[in-house]
Amino acid sequence: MSLLRLDDVSKSYGGVSAVRNFSFDVEEGEVIGLMGANGAGKTTVFSLIAGTQPVTTGQIWFAGQRIDQKPAYLISRLGIARTFQIVRPFSGLTVLDNLIIAAQHGHDRAPSRSSADARSRAILQEVGLADQANRLAGTLTLAGRKRLEIARAIATGPRLLLLDEVLAGLTATEVAAALEMIKHLRQHYQLTLVVIEHVMRALMKLCSRIVVLHHGEMLAEGAPADVVVDQRIISAYFGKRAS
Ligand SMILES: Nc1ncnc2c1ncn2[C@@H]1O[C@H](COP(=O)(O)OP(=O)(O)O)[C@@H](O)[C@H]1O
Ligand SMILES: [Mg+2]
User: Fold this and answer.
1) Are strands 209-214 and 217-222 parallel, antiparallel or unpaired?
2) Ordered domains of the chain (ranges, CATH)
């Protein structure tokens, strides 16, 4: 049984068809890359899985349970966490308090404030934010806020983590460091990952399988090396070739 299954899922926002008849499976332990041009529907797929948007039609299953009718907080408790493309920390709280709140909610809820505190400090160490623990979240650099976004998701104790462009806007050095961090977190917490990313080289390093969305539909799916040489994908990204 797959950990996650999307079965013929569609989503319309009024007249805009953001996701169309999209089906795919994620096995436990996999790292899937989700690619596609801006507006292809990638973030919408995450919102449907995490329950922050309702599906228009179709079904979503996680660990044997149908989840597309469930509210976001229950989906979080079942073990799905996501990050937001536009980071959403509680800016007026400290970095540590952002994590403590997450650790008290979600899948693996800390039974007490002190255990939430201990777990949060351990995660801050792993993501390289330990020395920023008492800083207000809103004052972090972009790279810091992206790390906090991942750390908060981890603090909920997920089985499945959805990362939405966590490398976007980072320098090459920051991207390399963030990739190492993601690999470490994946191994340490035995996570299954779906990663939306435009940095192709990063996806190649991280993912075992890549799914390409184009105008809300599945355009291609396969091993990273096969997907990147597929002409349809090159056209979807760069338009028709001039030859
Ligand atoms: N909350 C929303 N309300 C209306 N339209 C939306 C909303 N979110 C996304 N869309 C539209 O759905 C399409 C897919 O968007 P999105 O999932 O954000 O794409 P991507 O993440 O691949 O860039 C776009 O046409 C976008 O304008
Ligand atoms: Mg997006």
Assistant:
1) antiparallel
2) 4-89+142-238 (3.40.50.300)
Q: Tell me the best of 13, 34, 46, 48 to mutate to test the pocket of ligand 1, counting ligand atoms within 8 Å of each CB and taking the most.
A: 13
pTM of the model: 0.93
At 127-175, the pLDDT tens digits run 999 999 999 999 999 999 999 999 999 999 999 999 999 999 999 999 9
Distance (Å, whole) CA 49 – CA 184: 24
| Residues forming a β-bridge with 218 | 213
| CA–CA distance, 28 with 41 (Å, rounded to integer) | 23
Instruction: Tell me, using a 6 A CB cutoff, whether residue 11 lines ligand 1.
Output: no
**Dist. CA 44 → ligand 1 center (Å):** 6
- CB within 8 A of 178, min separation 6: which ones? 143, 146, 147, 166, 167, 170
Q: Is 206 exposed, middle or buried (CB count within 10 Å of its CB: 0-12, 13-18, 19+)?
A: buried
